[in-house]
Specification:
74% of the residues lie in helices and 0% in strands. With 53 residues, it is mainly alpha-helical. It has one domain. 4% of the residues are buried. The model has no long low-confidence stretch (mean pLDDT 83).
Amino acid sequence: MDTRYSRIPAFSSAFGYFAALEQWYLDGGNRPIADYVEEALRPLRGIWGTEPA
């Protein structure tokens, strides 16, 4: 398997987590960070078909 294609989900996930952390910080950390991570990664789940059980 070509490893170039495995980088796409890895980088997308990493950026999603970074974006969630940044937004959580900018909002003052009032909500749990898990809420921000869920919001950031929700679009990726739709693409990859990995909805939570």
